[in-house]
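so my prof wants the structure for this chain in the tokens format not the other one, which i didnt know existed until like an hour ago. anyway here's the sequence
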Amino acid sequence: MTVLVVTGTGTEIGKTVSTAAVAAAALAHGRSVAVLKPAQTGIAEGEPGDAAEVARLAGAVTLLELARYPEPLAPATAARRAGLPPVRPHEVAEATEKLATEHDLVLVEGAGGLLVRFDETGATLADAARLLGAPVLVVAHAGLGTLNATTLTTEALRARGLECPGVVIGSWPAAADLASRCNVADLPESSGVPLLGAVPQGAPALPPAEFRAQAPGWLAPRLDGTWDPARLAA
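here's what i got, hopefully its the right format
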């Protein structure tokens, strides 16, 4: 994959740390990596955003933000309230294609879930992925309720003719409950795509060098890792 779009089943589920893990695993394989954040919301000018957090954890990646809005809202709403131009899918596609000419892998990290609105027309990250013809990785939470949310997201991708290589659990709890343990087997069956990794809870607090060393062990070979879901189930 030259371009991989990263979305989530909602907010605060570990999308940024999962993006960092994918970037770190690719870098460990000697690949050059760029990270594009089309719309960063809820961060003031000058403050580090999600792309900067990916670089802090993963290492030497090229970063690009297309727009930044101060209020923690959906991009379309945040842009309107700030009186700033929204991000358009064609702008995301053009910026991604340029980065792809200079890097082995471009990670495009969305804001919130797949169908969060970018602009007043209702355009979404899915529209940008369709313009790019890029696969979309889904980040999900581990516990109760994730089967429904993840399956809705993968069904939305299929309905739009978009490829989903799989699902990554964005924050695997240190003491997994019954629902989380069962979801290791149930997520692939429900969503129709494989489970491609699980990032441990607390991973963002690791020293960056340790994060980079451990990241390949959290991801399946499809994402340049060595992770095996059987280990997690055990």
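also thought this was worth mentioning. The beta strands are 3-8, 33-41, 62-69, 105-113, 136-140, 167-172, 195-200.
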